[in-house]
Every structure is written in structure tokens, then in C-alpha cells.
What we know:
Layout: E1 8-10, E2 17-19, E3 23-28, E4 34-37, E5 45-50, H1 53-61, H2 65-69, H3 78-89
Bound molecules: zinc ion.
Zinc ion binds next to strand 5.
Amino acid sequence: MALKHIPQRTCIVCRAVRAKRELVRVVHTPADRVEADATGKKAGRGAYLCRARECWEIVLSARGRLEHALKLEVAIRLEDLALLREFAATLPPRDSVIATPINETK
Ligand SMILES: [Zn+2]
């Protein structure tokens, strides 16, 4: 059985380490917008969050937290925050998301 290398990322909120595809990337685009990047392939500096509503609500309610993760020098635009909140509302609650983070199975 060949072991496949699975790229892992850490959620900036709860620090859970998961396979990259199980997390959602937030990206600061070259156009200076901050948006959820469902494909994980958009250009720009990215940060990863669980595909769980709670992690998004925490990062969106703590002012400056997402800015810090993305190393932004200015606050994220209100319209971008509104879109991120809309996106967060489409995510499932944490309990329904994979129960065991990768770092607990090592
Ligand atoms: Zn998380």
C-alpha cells in the first residue's frame, strides 16, 4: 500500500490540522479583496478555516483577527465581510463536520 502525501493546513481559529481539501481557503486577492476561495486556487495570500460555521463566526466577529491571519494592514471592507458572513451561513455546524482532526490520529 503506497502512502500518499496529503497536503495539510491548520485552521486559523481552532488550530485543527486537516487535509487541505477539508478546509476552506480565504484569500486576499491582488485586487485587494478578501473572499472565500472554494477552489483553493485563487492568487493571493491565503488562510485556512474549517468547513464549519463556528470557526467562521469566531473569526468574523473578532475584529482584526482575519486581517492578522492574512497580514493585512487595513481592515477588510464591509462588503467583503458581508459576503464572508453569507458564505459562513451556508456552512454546516461543527458537529456535522468530520469529528477527528488529522493531528489526533497520528
Ligand atoms: Zn477550525
